[in-house]
Amino acid sequence: MPKIPLYLKTERNMPRPPDPEYYLLAKNGLFLCRNHRFFRSDVRTPRAPKWLLEHESRCRLDLPQVERHTLEIIVGFFGRVFELHGSEAIVLLLWNQQKRRYRILVPEQEATVRESASGLRSALDVSYKIPLSLPPGELLVGDLHCHAGGDAYSSATDREDEYYRDGFHGVVGRIQSEPPRFHLEFIVDGVRFGMDFKSLFKGYQRRWKKVPQRWLDRVKVKVERSHSTINQPYVMSGVGNGPRFG
């Protein structure tokens, strides 16, 4: 049985193909078209041509690996923020095309925590702004953010914020533990692909104890105080404008 041909509509007034039957793929969908003796029809159809084979979303990564010391200082930064504020934090990773290495960028950020009457804190979220411009030759390729004492996974807020941001997105959880927990995903055109630790990092031994003070100065904390003496549970949610992680 001959295959029904498939055409692409690339011009508004393109000539009509002479085939008795053909498929036309347009911006608003797929159409099954007929040139009959008594009529000519174009009907939208959900059925793809039977001779096409199935395909599925996939992504093969060729990312340069992040050096061990780079990850260890990032975890050290997250740990220090948690010690000071009990909050989340975020870093961006830039790729320098000339030097062929990653650079850590700590953006200005505001973390929100809930504090009970007894002084115990639980992390809520962190918000920040992506730089409008980057130095020439540098690309924003991903980010890592910390869930403070919570587990490492992509929350509903994370998924919403990262939908249109191609690149890798990592979560560091259980920051009070050594080592902490890691969760990695790569996003392309809104589709998430799982990553294992070795696909991005060269390794991890122990966090750095000393981190740049200028990084810590970029973390502002908003405290929501509770009148209850019961310690509030760890909550993941998003507030404020711009990208949020929680």
Task: Give a written overview of the molecule.
12% of the residues lie in helices and 35% in strands. The protein has 246 residues and is mostly beta strands. The protein has two domains: 6-44, no CATH class; 68-245, Cytidine Deaminase, domain 2, CATH 3.40.140.10. Strands 6-5-9-10-11-12 form a six-stranded mixed sheet. The protein has a four-stranded mixed sheet with strand order 1-2-3-4, with no helix packed on it. Strands 13-7-8-14 form a four-stranded mixed sheet. Strand 7 and strand 8 (121-128) form a beta hairpin. The protein is elongated and about 85 Å long. The N and C termini lie far apart (56 Å).
Question: What is the secondary structure topology, with strand pairs?
Answer:
Layout: E1 6-8, E2 21-26, E3 29-35, E4 40-44, H1 68-85, E5 89-96, E6 101-105, E7 109-115, E8 121-128, E9 138-146, H2 156-162, E10 167-173, E11 181-188, E12 191-195, H3 213-216, E13 219-225, E14 244-245
Parallel strand pairs: 1-2, 7-13, 9-10
Antiparallel strand pairs: 2-3, 3-4, 5-6, 5-9, 7-8, 8-14, 10-11, 11-12
The poorly predicted ranges are 229-242
Strand order of the largest sheet: 6-5-9-10-11-12
Biggest pleated-sheet summary: 6 strands, mixed
Assess the beta-strand content as a share of residues.
35-45%
Relative helix content? 10-25%
**What's the gyration radius in Å?**
25 Å
Report the principal-axis shape.
elongated
Order of helices and strands: EEEEHEEEEEHEEEHEE
- What's the CATH H-level homologous superfamily of the largest domain? Cytidine Deaminase, domain 2
Distance between the termini: 56 Å
CATH topology of the largest domain: Cytidine Deaminase, domain 2
Mean pLDDT metric: 89
Tally of distinct domains: 2
Per CATH, the architecture of the largest domain is 3-Layer(aba) Sandwich
Number of strands: 14
Secondary structure class reads mainly beta
CATH class call of the largest domain = Alpha Beta
The number of helices is 3
